[in-house]
Design goal:
single chain, TIM Barrel, 3-stranded antiparallel beta sheet, binds zinc ion
Length: 429
Amino acid sequence: MKRFKTVSLVALVGVLGVAIVGASFLMFGKLFKNKLVDDTVGASSTSSITREQQVENLLKTSDIQAAQYDYDKATSSIKAFDGYDKETSLTDALAKYAQGKSKLVKYADMSNITHIFFHSLIVDPQVAFAKDTNGGYNQYMATVSEFKKILDELYKRNFVLVSMHDIGHLDANGNMVEGTIMLPEGKKPMVISQDDVNYYYYMQGAGFADKLMVGDDGRPTTQYTTASGEKKQGEYDLVPILDNFIDKHPDFSYHGRKAILCITGYNGVLGYRTQETSTTRQAETVDAKKTADALKADGYEFASHSFGHIGFKVSSVQSILDDDAAWDDQVKPILGPTDLFVYPFGQDLAGLEEYSGEKFNDLYKRGFRYFANVDGSEPSWIQVHTKYLRQARRNIDGYRMFYNPELLKDLFNVQDVWEKARPTPVKPI
Ligand SMILES: [Zn+2]
């Protein structure tokens, strides 16, 4: 089946750049299936704890899996426990999971899955907007307080976080095939990503987090330096905020999915100065890798956002090949391989026509199969090709909230989340 639809691609956004492509787009709807690595669960972490405690711990884990609609995994976690059939609490749980599973339905409209994205969140609006000489923070960023309110609203409106890997996956022949998302009636899958999770040099001291890091509990968190110079750890960017939200509301995440983090390399990654030219590269690479591993274990995925934040449409083939080589040398060893590519400035290689040419061939050869551009004009836009999947993303930022609140109505009401400290009018792009 082919579905055609025309949308206008208003590409956008890099933190510093502005590149807009107006184009007409066709869309082919047909999709596929997820291939995220199934993490194994410590079903029976034995040691010296009593059997009763083991059962209790197991139920904590399996109940979260069930809340995240992964009833199969919850069931197998329990069945992996020796003598589970003699524990009433476990057999009760199995019955409950079977009932939960029977209420799941296949999400029918796989071409209607929205994808929203943010940049680094502004922690201190007073500081950020005071330093915002060209208006970029106000245009391209959301604040911590806005993000928290938006999450509440998305949850209330029955959105559930999935991955682009749930929308489609590669079959044994390497072709994209439609995915199956099983949710209770009325729940709506959505993808969230965050661009430029690099904590660029120019953002230092401007009211943003300093870096992502591994917290004392082994989970990712952020470090923030206050205006008075105090270093703190906690909810200073999307990752720890989303983690804490999903701890409270596990059913906001489908099978443990979190967000896609889109990373460049020219100022290092995740707040660590790992680029070739950095004098602290070696030590920072060790910490960056630990942080990346903790993020992946926590449900996050990485996407390449190019090494140098270059526009793929306007750059020459040679400069793209050079950029690709820098990513493979300086970023991939830290983050690990990824098949997700998120275009800087939303600058997609092609319009409605299918991908071809040297630039695409290089991306394909390097293993990229999922591509995302920017288009805030419609709730969703997905194109499936036998070789790849493309999805449009909607920017959630000062520009969109100020100029097009009506385009966000399916997600939240702008007046309910708007940061009062934002200077208005937001500068036009
Ligand atoms: Zn960007």
